[in-house]
Write a structure and sequence with these properties.
Strand order of the largest sheet: 1-2-3-4-5
Structural class: alpha+beta
Helix content: 25-40%
CATH topology: Aminopeptidase
Order of helices and strands: EHHEEEHEH
Number of strands: 5
Radius of gyration: 15 Å
Distance between the termini: 36 Å
Number of domains: 1
Shape: globular
CATH superfamily: Gcn5-related N-acetyltransferase (GNAT)
C-alpha cells in the first residue's frame, strides 16, 4: 500500500531511516518531536510510504515549494528516497515516486527535482525509469 504518512508511523519511518546514511534511531526529545509535528502540520511537506504487512519498507519525501517564476507555479523537491534492503527490486521506491508525482501534478508544479548521493548506476537508472533525467540541470551542494 502506498500512502502518506500518519503520526502513528513515526517509529516505522525512523527504523527505515536507520538504513539511510547510517542514521541512529533518534531520541524522542522535545526538539525531535517538535520537528516531527512541524512536518506533519506542513501542507507542503509530504512523506510517502510503502507499507507491506503493516511495516514501512520504502519512502520518499516530496516538498512543494512556492515559486515566483514560471507563472507562479510551484515545483516539487524529492529527498530521502529509501527502500529497506530486504525489499529492494520490487518497484516500491518507484511507486512512492509515482505517488509524489501525483501530488506535484495536483499542486500544479511545473517540475520535480530529485537529488541523490548514490553513484550506483543501477540506482541512477531506476530514477531514469521513474521519469527523471540527469541531463537538464547540474546540482551543487554546500554542506553547512
Amino acid at each position: 500500500m502506498i500512502r502518506e504518512i500518519t503520526a502513528a508511523d513515526l517509529d516505522g519511518l525512523m527504523t527505515l531511516y536507520m538504513q539511510l546514511h547510517g542514521n541512529p534511531f533518534p531520541e524522542k526529545d522535545e526538539r525531535f518531536m517538535s520537528v516531527w509535528q512541524r512536518v506533519l502540520d506542513d501542507p507542503d511537506h509530504h512523506i510517502i510510504v510503502a507499507e507491506e504487512d503493516g511495516v514501512i519498507v520504502s519512502s520518499c519525501v516530496c516538498v512543494i515549494i512556492p515559486n515566483l517564476t514560471r507563472g507562479q507555479r510551484p515545483y516539487a523537491f524529492i529527498e530521502n528516497v529509501i527502500t529497506d534492503s530486504a525489499h529492494r527490486g520490487k518497484g516500491l521506491a518507484t511507486a512512492c515516486l509515482d505517488f509524489a508525482r501525483d501530488i506535484a501534478r495536483r499542486e500544479n508544479c511545473y517540475k520535480m527535482m530529485l537529488l541523490t548521493g548514490s553513484k550506483e548506476e543501477s540506482t541512477l537508472r531506476s530514477y531514469e525509469r521513474a521519469g527523471y533525467n540527469r541531463n537538464d540541470k547540474t546540482a551543487f551542494i554546500q554542506w553547512l
